[in-house]
Amino acid sequence: MEKFIKISKLADLKKIKNPVKFLAGGTDIYPLLKDGFLENEFFCDISGIKELKETKIKKDVLEIGALVTFSDVIENPVFKKYANALYESALVMGSPQIRNRATLGGNIANASPSGDSIPPLFVLKAKIKTNLRTVDIDRFFMGPKKTILKKNELITRIIIPKEQKESYFMKVGPRKALAISKVSVAMAFKMQKGVLKDVRVALGAVGPTVLRAKKTEDFLEGKHLSDRIIKKAGEIVSSEAMPIDDFRSLAVYRRKVAGSILEKILEGRLKWVR
Amino acid sequence: MKHKINLNVNGEKHSIEVESHHTLLYAIREILHLTGTKKGCGEGECGACTVIMDGVPVRSCLVLAVEADGKDITTIEGIAKDGKLTKVQEAFIEAGAIQCGFCTPGFIVAIEALLKKKKNPKRSEIIEALGGHLCRCTGYEAILKAIEKISK
Questions:
Q1: Residue A229 near residue A223 (C-beta atoms within 8 A)
Q2: ipTM entry
């Protein structure tokens, strides 16, 4: 890497003339750099832009700066309150020192199908705000490591509606710290007298991007939570996942585990109802 | 492209020149010659290069030197004050928590940062804070014993 600039205000984006690669926490970028990729990139360090480090609680939404770190998500109680799935994903992302540096905006821009903050953002109906536009998260990812972001378009904020609903996240990886997810599941719903409403399910690492499990959502919608329903939902989500065989896991394993995780989340919730 | 940066390392001010692609780890080891900070994997997996930057433990292999411009850095060399070992360092020696010693600086720095944040961490909190620190001699139990002894 030969070229490097630093900006400290959003307004300075306009001054950048070359195509740049934005640098926030850098935790996904430096391993690539070490392996000799990205050598010819022009880097723009945005980590000093203060206005992107804030989380604002507005009337209907949480407005989260793209430079908010995973440690911030754990420590600031508003996340547990309004975006529990995101909070739960932060607890199991990377290691404490990675979480001190890694940002939400970076996790989204990196667009890994196994990015841990992404399934929670899908079920929490997040919108991604850039310097140019605001897009629903469902429409943001194009494939592994591919997004709709144009040259020098920067994610600035993540908007999450505050509507009171429950949300959860669980993942399976090879070890506890620094594990890249083999499979992850996020869920959100409202529960009224044991009946599930407004169900959203998203799956990580079992497709080219994070996927919504719409058949599972449709099946669970309006159902009274029971052991039988949970088992059936597990089967549906397994059939809906689109995993591949790769060096991390076999597809058949990922399908089965996607079902098991969903069942585990719902079983935990069922115990609480009883 | 060369950049001039200022680092406050272990209370000493340094003004150095680095390339855009140099990591903080490189600057600490190869320019300032503070070789107590170790390079293990070079990609954030092992924890051997941990330093404290503005009060927060980070992996110095995952921070660019230019990004650390103007920051306060504490390395393993800055942990003991006036030649006197800290409680953590004494406890490591007593518990035999060092085998080959390569991972030790990273562990010590991470633990010092943890104890600054939390005086008496529980075993589960210690394990959490050390998540992703690898000891290939697998001396984890002795390390935990050493920390538990002083945090009680």
A1: yes
A2: 0.77
